[in-house]
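To close the chapter, one final illustration. This time we ask the reader to focus less on the individual chains and more on the assembly as a whole: which components sit near each other, and how the overall shape emerges from the parts.
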Amino acid sequence: MLFLEFLFLDVVLGGSITENVVQKNISFYLMQISSYANQSWAQNRGSAWLDELQTHGWDSESGTIIFLHTWSRGNFSNEELEDLQLLFRFYFSGLTVEFQNRASELQINYPVDIQVRLGSELHSGEITKGFFHAAFNGLNFLSYQNKSWVPSPEGGMTAQKVCDLLNIYEGIKETAYYLMNDVCPRLLLGLLDAGKMDLQRQVRPEVWLSSSPNLEPGRLLLACHVSGFYPKPIWVMWMRGAQEQLETKQGDILPHADGTWYLRVTLDVAAKEAAGLSCRVRHSSLRDQDIILYWGHGLSVILIIFAVIVPLVLLIVLVLLCKKRCTYQSIS
Ligand SMILES: *[C@@H]1O[C@H](CO)[C@@H](O)[C@H](O)[C@H]1NC(C)=O
Ligand SMILES: *[C@@H]1O[C@H](CO)[C@@H](O)[C@H](O)[C@H]1NC(C)=O
Ligand SMILES: *[C@@H]1O[C@H](CO)[C@@H](O)[C@H](O)[C@H]1NC(C)=O
Ligand SMILES: *[C@@H]1O[C@H](CO)[C@@H](O)[C@H](O)[C@H]1NC(C)=O
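The assembled structure is written out below.
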């Protein structure tokens, strides 16, 4: 496999992508993933997210909020955060007990996975109405609309029964409403402000090309790797001159542990047609200066690097050797 890594081989002025790339809508939501294996085994996982960036975790052993960033407290006081922590602790333990007590009454068969997403969104600077969605074994189950619980069609009779049951309790409805329409919007704005430095950072991608022989003889699968960029929106295309290669296949944008992103974009070509292809990358961190890497130009660049570096290393070795000698001479 040919593996070439070099940065900014060619930089040209491109069209203005920055406006398209700037994100105007952002959501903040709490997520719950609960698994019930049987009558006696349950696991609750909790987290909070700003779009695709996790801001908080939940330690279910100790029942405490995990703050994942220095700015994860937003502008909330310790008292308010402790109140929330207590609320979640109470909710998780209460839900588990209630679920296990009522599973047979509601004709629920184990194992069960429950996912809940609750939060609010900022659209072009305006907070919109909060949302609450619950899924049951991967299917929509119920949501919260107009201050009451509404079953989803996929949820069937069970969802109807659960909603009927939940709608009796004003306290639960009010708590959900308060979380969606008060806590989440305030935390969303507070986090955006406190985390500004982190959230508005621009990290340039590293780009490199590789190829592997495709399944068919005489064909190559060219891959353009774009790694370590932030924020997530990006445009990557295989090109021949100014012509976008429409057979370009884009993979999923995958997260790195440090919050930056990785993307691999491939093109299946006849080996003899590979020369002259290039991979073009547009990203807000690059402003209008797209990165363009040409396929096949790599070797000459590496040769140039060798041509510069090898004599340099030799020179350094010579200098070091001379120094050593000089020292010995002065001692003797
Ligand atoms: C933001 O949300 C509004 C309302 O849903 C939508 O019309 C608009 O296209 C969205 N903008 C972006 C950049 O996604
Ligand atoms: C319940 O499920 C857990 C986890 O899968 C398992 O370890 C345990 O043996 C099960 N208990 C019963 C009573 O089936
Ligand atoms: C919301 O509920 C109120 C009273 O329960 C009702 O009058 C109103 O029509 C409902 N609105 C929607 C959009 O369902
Ligand atoms: C945090 O900031 C938001 C938005 O500026 C504001 O509405 C809220 O009152 C502030 N304080 C708290 C404790 O939420």
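DSSP finds six helices and 20 strands in the chain. Residues 298-331 form the longest helix (34 residues). With these observations in hand, you are ready for the problems at the end of the chapter.
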